[in-house]
Amino acid sequence: MGLRDVLLGKKKLAGPARERLFALTTAAVTLDTELGLRSAGAGGIVFKPLSAGEFVRAENDLQQLLDSVATESGSKLERREDSFGYTWIIVRDPDLEDQVTTIHAVAQGLEEQGFGSQLLAAVFKFDGGKHPVYWIYGYKRGAFWPFVPTGEDQKRDNAEELELKAKLEKELPVEQDLARWFGVFDAPL
Amino acid sequence: MAKFSSQFARNFTDTSLLVPHLNNWFAVAEFPEEIVLTIRPNKEKDDAFHPSSALQCSRELYAKLEDDLPPERTRMESEKTFMIGRYYHEMIQYIVVEGLGLGANTLAALITRWGLYFGMFGGFGGGGNRNSNNGNNQVPIWLIVFVVAAVTYAVSFILIRTISRYREYAADRGSALITGAPENLMSALQKIASDMFRIPERDLRQVETMNAFFIIPTSVKKGAQTLFATHPPLEKRLEALSEIAREMGRPVA
Question: Which of A110, A166, B48, B229 is deepest in the core (most CB within 10 A)?
Answer without folding.
Answer: B48
